Amino acid sequence: MSAVRKVLVQGGGIGGLTLAAALAQRGIEVDVAEASGAASVLGVGLIQPNNALAALEEIGVRGSCLEAGFQLEPLGIWNSEGVEVATIPHPEGRYGQPSNNGIGRPLYTGILREAAEKAGANIITGVTIWEMNEDHDGVDVELATWTGKRTQAVRQGGAASSRYDLVVGFDGVRSRVREHLFADAYAPEFTGFACWRVKMPRPVDLTRSAFVMSKDVKAVLTPISDDEMYIALVTPEPGNPRHDPLDFVRLVHERMRDFTGPLAELRDSITDVGRINYTPLEHVTVREPWFRGRIAIAGDAAHTSPPHLAQGAAMAVEDAVTLAAALVEHSTVPAALDAWYTRRRDRALFVADMSLALLKQEMGAQMTPDEKELADVGIAGALAILAQEAY
Ligand SMILES: Cc1cc2nc3c(=O)[nH]c(=O)nc-3n(C[C@H](O)[C@H](O)[C@H](O)COP(=O)(O)OP(=O)(O)OC[C@H]3O[C@@H](n4cnc5c(N)ncnc54)[C@H](O)[C@@H]3O)c2cc1C
């Protein structure tokens, strides 16, 4: 008998929707409480490495992702004039080809949402957990209406209360469920760097993801469909400034001023502020069990890292499918959560620590001896480890 019959997932992002699909497909009743509206997906696109594609196959959506996306092989390294000087072939491993798939975030989330709903998950948008009261065999939860940052949550009364066997916080870097479990012990830390992402038409000859460094700015070009790509810029942003969105176009041009050749052409074509997304890069690494009693956290809520291995969402998806499996393989919640955390901890924290070390190395930031040792493994070395180890 499985450890749970009814689960609440807070957060209907990539991880939360994957968990909802995986649980509902196993006959477990699932509610998803998501703050933002159905159409609101932050970000532009991302890379699905083959370990993520393998985990997505478990909920039956690998094919739809490949169809909606753009297969990238191998990764290219360009000089600041846009000339390819090296490639990083994806290492051989247990997860096969294609090694990477670029995909638009709204499309990706839409595919996951459809899979979750088709399996019977109940996705409630515009809500958040107001209160949780746990006892030995369940958690009583009251939901409140909430649409996210800078708005007040509004209680709805008794009709919004239910009892669950397990509550999972897949609610991202600013997780309220993490706060409930650990207070401010794991508040997100700003790295000193941020990422600008701009969606634009794909040049026909851009058929792989390309990395370009120019002084202290890193650019990554990623096709996400036949027609579209995005450029991601990692830039130093000392003091974590709050930029005015009306200034985004000028700021992106300024940060790309040292690029020449095709990168300069792309820069000059950036004129629409609506296509620019700005994200300060933060990290959170919870180095103790990601649960207490019947309340757990997963994905970015437990381990957020800079995007330097393109593995953050992959880890969220792996967390989700392995958690669903553990909950049916074990007959009690403590046994299931303990087995799941033991299985996931080292791999997810390796990605988090390695990504932060790579960011610091690339940007010339101060590093601890442990970070230097990790960064010396390099992107290719880290990808080989992730491709060979099972999730
Ligand atoms: C610049 C950048 C590029 C990246 N590129 C890649 C990449 O190429 N490949 C890759 O694998 N990863 C990438 N990542 C990482 C990836 O975006 C995250 O790791 C992934 O989105 C984490 O998924 P999640 O479901 O844990 O959290 P999220 O995607 O953050 O989802 C959390 C959800 O919870 C909701 N929520 C938050 N708080 C509440 C609340 N209190 N109540 C209700 N709902 C709430 C949010 O609205 C959101 O829908 C990148 C990250 C960045 C910043």
**Structural class based on helices, strands and sheet pairing:** alpha+beta
Specify the biggest β-sheet. Answer: 8 strands, mixed
- Span between termini: 24 Å
Uncertain spans: none
CATH architecture of the largest domain: 3-Layer(bba) Sandwich
Determine and state the CATH class of the largest domain.
Alpha Beta
Write down the Rg: 21 Å
Strand count:
21
List ligands, each type once: flavin-adenine dinucleotide
Q: Give the CA-based shape.
A: globular
- Overall tally of domains: 2
Major sheet: arrangement of strands = 6-5-15-16-17-14-18-21
Task: Determine the CATH topology of the largest domain.
Answer: FAD/NAD(P)-binding domain
Number of helical regions = 11
Q: In the CATH hierarchy, what is the superfamily of the largest domain?
A: FAD/NAD(P)-binding domain
Proportion of residues in β-strands: 25-35%
Proportion of residues in helical segments:
25-40%
Estimate the mean pLDDT confidence: 94
How would you describe this structure to a colleague?
With 391 residues, the chain is α+β, with helices and mostly antiparallel strands. The chain folds into two domains: 265 residues, FAD/NAD(P)-binding domain, CATH 3.50.50.60; 91 residues, D-Amino Acid Oxidase, Chain A, domain 2 (2-Layer Sandwich). Helices cover 33% and strands 29% of the residues. The protein has eleven helices and 21 strands. It has an eight-stranded mixed beta sheet, sandwiched between helices. Strands 8-2-1-13-20-19 form a six-stranded mixed beta sheet. Strands 9, 10, 11 and 12 form a four-stranded antiparallel beta sheet that branches. Helix 1 packs parallel to helix 8, helix 2 runs parallel beside helix 8 and helix 9 packs antiparallel against helix 11. The two termini are 24 Å apart. The model has no long low-confidence stretch (mean pLDDT 94). The chain binds flavin-adenine dinucleotide. Flavin-adenine dinucleotide binds next to helix 1, strand 2, strand 3, strand 14 and helix 8.
